[in-house]
Amino acid sequence: MSNDWHIANSSNTPSELLAIGHGTLIRMHLLPTRSLRVNNIVRDLARFYSTGLRKGRHISWVTCRKGTPDDTMELADPFATPSEHSRTINFDLVLEHRGEHLPVHGSVIFDENTPQSESRVQIGFGYRMIRSTTECFQSRDGEEKYAGIGVSGWLDLGEGWQPYLSTTKDAVDDAPLYSALMDHVFKRIKPLLQAAERKSFSVQFDDLAIGLEQALNSRTGDVVVKVGTEMGPPPTTDNSTGVPPTDHPPGPPPEIPMSNGRPGDSERNVSPSLEITIYQESDSALEGALCQAGIRGNDIFVAVNRDHAFVQEALKARPVNRMAFNVMIVDELARAIVEVDDGILIKKIFHRDVASAIYGIEHNHHRSRIVARRLIDRVREPLMAK
Known about the structure:
Ribosomal Protein S5, domain 2
């Protein structure tokens, strides 16, 4: 290895580079049993040199067969075509640092189709990317943090940034300057991060509803669990369920006409399938409660406090802490079901012998505990089996 520079000639330079006078040539010889994943390489090259592609540079991928060019592919900027449903914030700013004015140009996009693996902001200088980061998804003090799933984009550093880059040109080598840049970007894209988090939470609630429905349907398949968008006004009575609580007398529950193990047609006309709707509510709407369940007619609603730190941490966990949600929701469901049960709800959810045992419990408060235990066992078993 030598640090001396040599004039290019036919003996020390490949003919392809000698002909054009510049560039880098990489030639690989593969065994017949090996192959290249061309699409992955082209994708990574386009991402790495996206800064140059945006500035009008061209990169061609040429496939040869027996030494003869067979196909040519032009690399394109990976951020050029966001979907029509995306939201974009553009950057054209100048940071002042040590008396210098440092330009930054870029674009950050929220697109629901962007996967978590691609949800990053790339920082480029010159013709290539120098860093890929999610540090702008949180405030400078770290008090506000967002997962940013669906948020991606690029920032191109302009002339004047050279002294503040590492010698390998793969990082900003000035912590205060980099922190100021990330803080500025965070404040600008915060609406996108909040929108991304709301969307992510909605998706997670949909998944929770599906899992809860599968667990509760182990008996009849009559339980429907869905996610609602508007809970509407609260019940008009002092009781959150809208029906005064009464202790059901101990003993077997009222009989329900059955046909092949499912409620008969006459019963279906009187009492439709049990529908449970889960809502995301603010802390103020729930008056500080973590979760609240109630019954309106034949429907059960469960409102979850989306603003509470416990709920947000459970949703942000990877994987999502489903059991924490299930315990919280099931406990509230049990209280609501027991408070207004008329001999229908419990029999819709549990087998006859289990329902009879539950009705044999004298007091409502203990009956609700057993209902919660039975429900959480049912929710827990599929998860453990999986």
